[in-house]
């Protein structure tokens, strides 16, 4: 497609937001002139795309370009503890002509609920769970940023301590991580982005590659010195010195088995679940529990086989209903059909809005969830358009959100409300 095309695509991940958007405009002009092929009309949706403002290979602009070329018809940003990429995401979506939604994913404390002491949906810590705020009004972006800022500061304190723990492991091999140089530098923390465990492990991955190079020497270090267990597929990836995703594959190996060695429990950085729900209700967003389900063979290869919420799912649903959450978000490709049917039945029983999103944070992941082709998940396409309609409406007026008292009174049946907001979402 030519050097110009490659340059424009590369610059979608430029350090400067304006440069990213400028290069997106150039690509769209190439499309208009017929110099590059227009993607085929798609059908898929994805409401859970991470960007460089948490951990991802993609800026918000690059994420939209990737989503567009994958054939998505809608896309949603979902960064950890950060909404700093939202305005860019919205603008890039407008330029492309793709409907978008904005949200935030965070870890919350369930200690003051009946789930205290349970392994919920967090592989690393009991009583702590992931939840998401979907459909955040564009008028409330600053309020969301201000809410999470102090929690991000607390997270950074713990990040430094975890890096110290890693250094205790790797120092005997004359390897050390510098938090500012090796971790902060690969984040967008200076622009309000978060620093996650993935950043720390990606920094370690780059450090190990720099020390041992790619291939057998590094693989032997990981297996024999760090004593990590690798799948046959992971070994193959790490032996391939031409693997374009090498650092991400190494990150996956480290995340799967090494986190438990250096992890420090998150405390002050995790707001009480009730406080996040209160924020969501105040700004008119949709508060969602993120279902994980028991893990067998991890789809992404970075999770161990582990039990989560399936053994007490009815209690979990009763708890999140009593707390006042609005929705359950889940990833159809991550679970068995048996798990998903049970989940959907409980959503219907407890009157929860269902939201779908495939967690995108690695270049190996597809933006398209093929599982959505099954007619059993048709409602997830509809709910995405309803989510878009909600975001449009609530941006104009908080009282017009899908879960506002006004709308619940007018349309008490959730299914009817979804249809109303779906129509609003599809309006140009």
Radius of gyration: 21 Å
Please identify the structural class as seen in this structure.
alpha/beta
Main β-sheet, spatial strand arrangement? 1-2-3-4-5-6
What is the residue-mean pLDDT, rounded to a whole number?
95
Distance between the termini: 32 Å
Characterization of this structure:
It is a single chain. A six-stranded mixed β-sheet has the order 1-2-3-4-5-6. Helix 13 links the parallel strand 5 and strand 6. 48% of the residues lie in helices and 9% in strands. The protein has helices at residues 3-10, 17-32, 60-70, 86-96, 141-170, 179-183, 197-212, 216-225, 232-239, 246-262, 273-283, 313-323, 337-350, 378-396, 405-410, 414-426, and strands at 74-80, 99-109, 128-134, 286-290, 327-330, 353-356. Helix 2 (17-32) packs parallel to helix 4 and helix 7 packs across helix 10. It is α/β, with parallel strands linked by helices and 428 residues long.
